[in-house]
Design brief:
574 residues; alpha+beta; Potassium Channel Kv1.1, Chain A; Serine Threonine Protein Phosphatase 5, Tetratricopeptide repeat; Neuraminidase; four-stranded antiparallel sheet; 27 strands; 25% strand
Length: 574
């Protein structure tokens, strides 16, 4: 009888030991090591391992299926395991009892094969992670081949991406030189190779041929046909490719060299070339820090502020400011250094140039341009900086200058066909392309490109919309423009150009109207940075993913509100 005011005790009490299963497995492991109560022996070659059916069935899917589905082995005292490495099987049996496994360079492949056979997906994944984190130019091709054999898709993709990113280092490693012909042909055909120039691909092909010259020399024409020789410098074609004894001795190879030389000498023949031969390689998996340089604050004042965006972390961080305030500034990246060129300091148009080194977080002066200019287009081609057009304080310009980092000198080259201020400028298919802009009286839809080898400008199909103060960038096989101003409105519309069709087509518009917007490519995507929507300067950033065909807002700039110049420094150069 329960006294009044006291709680009635339940007749049911739950008692548990949460660590009992793990302690139980530990006891079973001790019993197994004593050789007691074991009811099955696994045999590999001359090696035998005793164990308990119930433990194996509880921990390893392969044995669960074997021991619970009345398979023939269910009643056998000894089971032969064909094709397994004895040490790997022993390690996996031990894992069944204690949940621990030591993975190292010597056992990772045999463990992965054993885990795959025994259907231990978690161990297979752990082995793949181990290999992925230790990819190196000397082993990545072997890892990729092993991943393909074991049907490890994630590891295969990671190794393939690593090969593309580090192609130059991979191409001098023993694994590359020992590759079969079909694998070399496939690799040299990839758009995604990370090379500074097509000349590095040529050298890789020649090294592979010479590794076993007698057997491989007949394959040279096939390899050379996959190399984009028209993208090589004329000097390299004449002095290196044409003079190589392997090339000189082969009629088909000489024809390919002549085709590449004709590309530079006779532009009218270009439409007859296979499209891939003039498409620069682009490694989309390489991310880069996007630097926003100068620009304007909400009051419209020019800034010297610089900040960098990490597209992987989706985060902006402030960097060392420039020595000079610059809006409508040209920005270029050469050899891992960021150049801030010209612009407007709030009073004057500038010809001065300064250079930022991300390793020292410091700015230094470089040689000044021949002309003062703001709102010009700035790009890099073959290690040279090009500035096109702009505004000098009194008129729009058609003049063009190139800068050599080696000599620290600017050289005036052939002017554009039109005076263009606030045009979009980008390198597309190995050529400087200039789109739109204005001359102070009219806004253009026209587009022209510069052949740096003949020193001539050529027209291509005009944009669907006239625009100035827009963003321009290249990605993959297309050139993109977005935003800008058409004389009556601020634009969100974007379009892409295909050289094969010589025409522009609309793509999905940005979420925001943006004039004075900068467009830059990084990690296979486009980033539209800042701008002006007709009412206020913008700190917002949008990213275009060509795979999903969507613009997505990213983290906004912290220190800027529109009008910035942008440049992207690949992380591998830092």
């Amino acid at each position: 009888m329960v006294e009044s005011g006291e709680e009635e005790l339940s007749d049911l009490v739950h008692f548990s030991l949460s660590d009992l299963p793990s302690r139980g497995y530990g006891v079973m492991e001790d019993i197994r090591r004593q050789g007691k109560l074991c009811d099955v022996t696994l045999k590999v070659d001359e090696h035998k391992f005793s164990a308990h059916r119930i433990v194996l069935a509880a921990s390893i899917p392969y044995f669960h299926a074997m021991f619970t589905n009345d398979m023939m082995e269910c009643k056998q005292d000894e089971i032969v395991m064909q094709g397994m490495d004895p040490s790997a099987l022993e390690a996996l049996i031990n894992f069944a009892y204690n949940g621990h496994l030591a993975i190292d360079q010597q056992n990772v492949q045999s463990l992965l094969m054993g885990a795959s056979f025994l259907q231990l997906q978690n161990i297979k994944d752990a082995c793949c992670t181990f290999l992925r984190e230790r990819l190196h130019p000397k082993n990545c091709l072997g890892v990729r081949q092993f991943a393909e054999t074991m049907m490890c898709a994630v590891l295969y993709d990671s190794a393939t991406s690593f090969v593309h990113q580090h192609f130059v280092e991979v191409s001098v490693a023993e694994e590359f030189l020992a590759l079969p012909f079909d694998d070399v042909l496939e690799l040299l055909s990839r758009d995604e190779l990370n090379v500074k120039s097509e000349e590095q691909v040529f050298e890789a092909a020649l090294a592979w041929i010479r590794y076993e010259r007698e057997a491989r020399e007949p394959r040279l024409p096939e390899l050379l046909a996959r190399i984009r020789l028209p993208l090589c410098r004329p000097q390299f074609l004449a002095d290196r490719v044409q003079q190589d004894e392997l090339v000189r001795c082969c009629h088909k190879c000489r024809d390919l060299v002549d085709e590449a030389k004709d590309y530079h000498l006779m532009p009218e023949r270009r439409p007859h070339l296979l499209a891939f031969k003039t498409r620069p390689r682009c490694c989309p998996s390489i991310a880069g820090l996007i630097y926003a340089v100068g620009g304007l604050n909400s009051a419209g004042d020019s800034l010297n502020v610089v900040e960098a965006f990490d597209p992987i972390a989706n985060r902006w961080e402030r960097c060392q400011p420039m020595t000079t305030a610059r809006s409508r500034v040209g920005v270029a990246v050469v050899n891992g250094l960021l150049y801030a060129i010209g612009g407007y300091d709030g009073q004057l148009r500038l010809s001065t140039v300064e250079v930022y080194n991300p390793e020292t977080d410091a700015w230094t002066r470089a040689g000044s341009m021949n002309s003062k200019r703001s709102a010009m287009g700035t790009v890099v081609l073959d290690g040279q900086i090009y500035v096109c057009g702009g505004y000098n304080g009194s008129s729009s310009l058609n003049s063009v200058e190139t800068y050599s980092p080696e000599t620290d000198k600017w050289t005036v080259i052939t002017p554009m066909s039109a005076n263009r201020s606030a045009a979009g400028v980008t390198v597309f298919e190995g050529r400087v392309h200039v789109s739109g802009g204005h001359d102070g009286l009219q806004i253009f839809s026209s587009v022209e490109y510069y052949n740096q080898h003949t020193g001539t400008w050529y027209p291509v199909a005009g944009m669907l919309n006239k625009r100035c103060r827009h963003g321009a960038a290249s990605l993959g096989s297309k050139m993109f423009v977005c935003g800008g101003y058409d004389g009556s409105g601020f634009l969100s519309i974007a379009e892409a150009y295909s050289s094969a069709a010589d025409q522009w087509s609309l793509i999905v518009p940005m979420n925001t109207r943006r004039s004075r917007v900068s467009l830059v490519a990084s990690c296979g995507r486009l980033y539209a940075v800042g701008g002006y929507d007709g009412q206020s300067n913008l700190s917002s950033v949008e990213m275009f993913d060509p795979e999903t065909n969507r613009w997505t807002f990213m983290a906004p700039m912290v220190c800027h509100e529109g009008g910035v110049g942008v440049g992207c420094i690949p992380l591998l150069t830092l």
